[in-house]
Amino acid sequence: MTSSTALLTDRYELTMVDAAIRAGTHDRRSVFEAFGRSLPAGRRYGVVAGTGRLLELIGDFRFQDAELEFLREQRVVSTPTLEWLANYRFSGTITGYREGEIYFPNSPILVVEASFAEGVLLETLILSVLNYDSSVAGAASRMVSAARGRPLAEMGSRRTGERSAVAAARAAYIAGFAATSNLEAGRTWGVPTMGTAAHAFTMLHDTEEEAFRAQVAALGAGTTLLVDTYDVAEGVRTAVRVAGPELGAVRLDSGDLLTLVSTVRAQLDELGNRDTKITVTNDLDEYTIAALAATPVDSFGVGTSVVTGSGSPAAGMVYKLVARQDSQGEWISVAKKSPEKATHGGRKHPVRLLDASGTASSETIYVGATAPAIVRGRTLHSALMTDGVADPAYTGGQGVEAARERRATALRELPAEAFRLAAGDPALPTVYVDAPTTRR
Amino acid sequence: MTSSTALLTDRYELTMVDAAIRAGTHDRRSVFEAFGRSLPAGRRYGVVAGTGRLLELIGDFRFQDAELEFLREQRVVSTPTLEWLANYRFSGTITGYREGEIYFPNSPILVVEASFAEGVLLETLILSVLNYDSSVAGAASRMVSAARGRPLAEMGSRRTGERSAVAAARAAYIAGFAATSNLEAGRTWGVPTMGTAAHAFTMLHDTEEEAFRAQVAALGAGTTLLVDTYDVAEGVRTAVRVAGPELGAVRLDSGDLLTLVSTVRAQLDELGNRDTKITVTNDLDEYTIAALAATPVDSFGVGTSVVTGSGSPAAGMVYKLVARQDSQGEWISVAKKSPEKATHGGRKHPVRLLDASGTASSETIYVGATAPAIVRGRTLHSALMTDGVADPAYTGGQGVEAARERRATALRELPAEAFRLAAGDPALPTVYVDAPTTRR
Predict the structure, then answer these.
(1) 8 A C-beta contact, residue B247 and residue B271
(2) What is the mean pLDDT of residues B353-369?
(3) Which site in A90, A242, B18, B141 is 20 to 30 Å from B153, CA atoms measured?
(4) Confidence (pLDDT) at A391
């Protein structure tokens, strides 16, 4: 697989550049904005994710010989455009919500300022990353709240594309998950990894006891034994007999967990294994996690629902031109007028207004040339990339850790209704405040 | 990004290998099977996709210094296991449904025969690829039927992870889509690419006419002009004025398409542009495509719904140990007994039985040592990889073309109810025929 990300894009981004170069309009300075018109169905808030890895992917967005040859052979663009692409390196500025920040409908999550051609080329890549990663983070964050302090592990690698799996593990960790099963996410992003054994390991051996002995010999008594391959009560007895009082945990991956967890807890206690924990992993989502929070469960493993955004596998973000220079170099706001897809033109300055107690009261978006003076609230835009250079605070493993911290902090500002699982309105209203002129 | 795929896996695959090596059970010959317990909600059939690229990814599943160093540092496995992994190269045999084949609940889509350790290591990667790609192909295939012969383009790259986007374009093409917007899918898999311009291109210019002139200058009059940035009727007039009678197509991306398509068709005809086509692209899925098939629309562009599997973003396949040698080298079938996750042990020989007219009547799965003699039907298993070497007929661009052809052919065998969009039972029943003994 090539490391260039330049063809991870829609063909029309390149034909637009081609036509603009021919028309002499490609160099008009432009402002593009990524935002979601609404939150995924009934959610109260969203979590921005993907920003850090996006900044790295933009650095790899270069057209090298192999990419240029493909474009030439397929006649995607003309020769002058091939020459322009050969020298392409994003040199613009990206301002936006920092990764882990909370967002609401129309929050201007990313603002790209560059020439039209430089900015439009990144559209597909920006949306692929933000839409998928924020979908996972938004779902994961609700699961973390539903678990009421018990740790969650992301185990859904097998339920999404093999590279999306790495992004999903990263996004779930940012949203408060404690660990992932995905090893590449451990290597690339420093996410803690976990996992012990599947049913196949039990079935490889002639008896469940033989399998448990093999696992304890390799991983120690503190391991987690999967006890539901055959009969749960028998599995628990065997696990305790093999691992003794030091047995770390038992895992339940089937059955009616609401009743089973209590039964197994009582059995473990009776056998003297009061410190042995119970982890559950059977097709959980935020609703079953909330229901299980009333049982003596100790931790959760979540697969399909978290890596597929729990019913909303794409966060619904779009990337729109909102301002540009005209042929005289004057800035003008632009907006699409088609009925259900109208956009709000102009450069935005978003602020999370806070009330006297420090609770967020609105997502207020000032539109205009300069940021307003804020009385009580947080400005939400930071410089993520300046003249093509990413701020290293937002990339790599340190970016992931900072994003995880940021999501936890930002969530504490939200009003109580933000944490309702039931479908409803966003927890904060989005309010536009237009400056007298939207020129900048 | 590293080209090794060896860490695109769950940690527990490695800890199981570690424990099995320590117990001396890792070399027991084993049969693993990938299958789905059911089809995605209410679907009548599934389409196998991902096989060809999976075979290539398995070839890159090697533990090199960087991977081994990570595993050592994180203490994932013991030193003897690190040595075993350093020499790991999958040397087993993979039999299965060829890509593009139709499948039903419990169809044994992929059968992996190898040592336990070699086979279990591939679980996560196999499922990631098959689950995502088959999810897209299953949804795409229904859209193709709903379009009743009109071509569809896959344009959903921005609505899924950036590498999943390439897989989605490939899977949709296998399922009968005509083209994709994704350039990397064009380069890597030979999928035809398409696309012209977005609203941003119109808004870059001072007038819609200026934008259309720029696009026609670069791409010719045969291009597709996007006419709904401001006012559709005005947009169509401008498009025809600029491009003349040779205008290839107009694209509608908003509004009530059911009425708009007819209005625009009438307007184009009145302006003398009877050969100018109409393409529509506004959040379509199989249901809106079916409804639009009654209008004078010429082609469809589909985004979110196809790359997210139209409500079922993971096909639900699992990978289970179904047979293994015991400590004496005797083959035994194994099966999990937990209530809702019971598996059917043993080596399978699936056959699509056909009636006298050549219409498929059942998915019959013979369980046992040898394949039965089939009176009327197709055996569904082919050798995809032998002793670690993939059959080149199934990989690369030629594998994609063959898979696309295969899906079309296999679909023609199905009974009429297979093409109903409404939720219902699978179009064929899955029938097990157990041999007197399941030893092989």
Answers:
(1) no
(2) 92
(3) A90
(4) 98
Angle at which helix B11-23 crosses helix A208-219, to 10 degrees, equals 100
Query: Which residues of chain B from 207 to 246 reach within 8 Å of chain A, CB to CB?
Result: 210, 213-215, 217-219, 228-231
Q: Which pLDDT tens digit goes with each residue over A422-440?
A: 999 999 999 999 865 444 3
In the beta sheet, which residues pair with residue A320? Answer: A33
B123 touching A (Cβ < 8 Å): yes
User: pLDDT tens, A303-348?
Assistant: 999 999 999 999 999 999 999 998 898 999 887 665 556 667 778 9
- Crossing angle for the helix pair B51-59 and B396-412, nearest 10 degrees? 150
CA-nearest residue of chain B to A32? B200
Contacts of A356 (CB under 8 A, 6+ apart): A376
Q: B18, A219: Cβ pair inside 8 Å?
A: yes
Out of B5, B161, B338, the one facing A128 most closely (by C-beta) is: B161
Q: Which domains does chain A have, with CATH numbers?
A: 11-136+312-434 (3.20.140.10), 151-310 (3.20.20.70)
Interface confidence (ipTM) of the complex? 0.96
CA atoms of B419 and B304, how far apart (whole Å): 22
Question: Which residue on chain A is closest to B183 by alpha carbon?
Answer: A7
d(CA A378, CA B282): 36
Q: Please give the Cα distance from A128 to A139 (Å, whole number).
A: 17
CB proximity A204 to B under 8 Å: yes
B130/A contact by beta carbon, under 8 A? no
Q: With beta carbons under 8 A apart, name residues in chain A contacting B187.
A: 7, 66-67, 70
Chain A CB within 8 Å of residue B299 CB = no
Q: Is the pLDDT of residue B438 over 90?
A: no
| Interface mutation target, options A2, A78, A158, chain B, most CBs of B under 10 Å | A158
Q: What does the pLDDT read at residue A368?
A: 80
The secondary structure of residue B373, as a DSSP letter, is P
Q: What's the one-letter identity of residue A199?
A: H
Are the C-beta atoms of residues B61 and B121 closer than 8 Å to each other? yes
Write the secondary structure of chain A as one string of H (helix), E (strand) and C (coil).
Answer: CCCCCCCCCEHHHHHHHHHHHHHCCCCCEEEEEEEECCCCCCCCCEECCCHHHHHHHHHCCCCCHHHHHHHHHCCCCCHHHHHHHHCCCCCCEEEECCCCCEECCCCCCEEEEEEHHHHHHCHHHHHHHHHHHHHHHHHHHHHHHHCCCCCEEECCHHHCCCCHHHHHHHHHHHCCCCEECEHHHHHHHCCCECCCCCHHHHHHCCCHHHHHHHHHHHHCCCCEEECCCCCHHHHHHHHHHHHHHHCCEEEECCCCHHHHHHHHHHHHHHCCCCCCEEEECCCCCHHHHHHHCCCCCCEEEECHHHHCHHHCCCCCEEEEEEEEECCCCCEEECCCCCHHHCCCCCCEEEEEEECCCCCEEEEEEEECCCCCCCCCEEECCEEEEECCEECHHHCHHHHHHHHHHHHHHHHHCCCHHHHCCCCCCCCCCEEEEECCCCCC
| Structural tokens at position B1 | 């990004």
The answer to whether the Cβ–Cβ distance between A157 and B334 falls below 8 Å is no
